[in-house]
Amino acid sequence: MNFTKMHGLGNDFMLIYTPTTPDFTRLSALAPQMCDRHTGVGADGIAVLYPSAVADIAMRIINSDGSIAEQCGNAMRCVAKYFYERLSGLKTHFTIESKIGVQPVWIETEAGVATKVRIDMGPPILEPARIPLYLEGDRAVEQTISVAGQSFTYTAVSMGNPHMVIAVRDAAAFPVNEWGPVLETHPLFPNKTNVEFVTYHSPEEVTMRVWERGAGPTLACGSGACATVVAGVLTGQTARKAVVHLPAGDLLIDWNEQDGHVYMTGPAAFVYDGVWLGK
Ligand SMILES: N[C@@H](CCC[C@H](N)C(=O)O)C(=O)O
């Protein structure tokens, strides 16, 4: 099976392009083995790229544990760069069909190379029932959650996939691996959740670290960065446009006032092309 290793700010993926309908059951079953960092290729997930009837291309994201997620901002930027440079004939504006719908994409280029990708990540979903989260009311802003004898204040946002955003004093030093797994699987979130630990520095700047549902600690999460700025706006911590600092670089997030959609801009990179020889 041919694949291309790519990453978006260190959130890394095996991209598999197939001109026919993908066998998701097989790819989900293979994902833990392919994504294993010792005995496989090593990746946070698999991004599957295939023809779409309603957009220029379709993509689905499979987490490294084999679960299929609704959304993945970093994989979408990788898919967009791949599509722009290898399949589209250098089209700088096109659409990608994901599980959440048809998402417009814009490519910034230099000599035929995609340097930045901007994606319409759609409107955030705030109603707890649709995140999904077991909580009454129409929003989950600055709620308390208790786990293993510790309480956290969180704001929940779905970008198609669920996110719990927790403001902490120093996100860079926060023990993500200790608290991430217990919060990911908290029974309040029936489909589990991604967890972002964030420090709001100013209305325009945030530092974020993430524990991803189905993948563990990753270096970046595009949908999580979108959720972080939405949570920042809802709690009065950020402006609608802010830079999210991640361990390997920055994402620019803009929760547009006119259409209510969240726009994400950032880089994507090729690493290598390979052939998976396992079964
Ligand atoms: N890394 C992603 C999100 C990938 C899916 C996530 N782990 C989930 O299960 O929702 C991103 O960049 O958005």
Automatic annotation (TrEMBL):
The active site is at residues 72, 221. The gene is dapF. It is found in: Cytoplasm. It comes from Laceyella putida. The keyword Cytoplasm applies. InterPro entries: DAP_epimerase_AS (IPR018510), DAP_epimerase_DapF (IPR001653). Its EC number is 5.1.1.7. This is Diaminopimelate epimerase. It comes from the Bacteria. The record marks 163, 212 as: Could be important to modulate the pK values of the two catalytic cysteine residues. Keywords: Amino-acid biosynthesis, Cytoplasm, Isomerase, Lysine biosynthesis. Catalyzes the stereoinversion of LL-2,6-diaminopimelate (L,L-DAP) to meso-diaminopimelate (meso-DAP), a precursor of L-lysine and an essential component of the bacterial peptidoglycan. Substrate binds at residues 11, 63, 73-74, 161, 194, 212-213, 222-223. The keyword Transport does not apply. Homodimer.
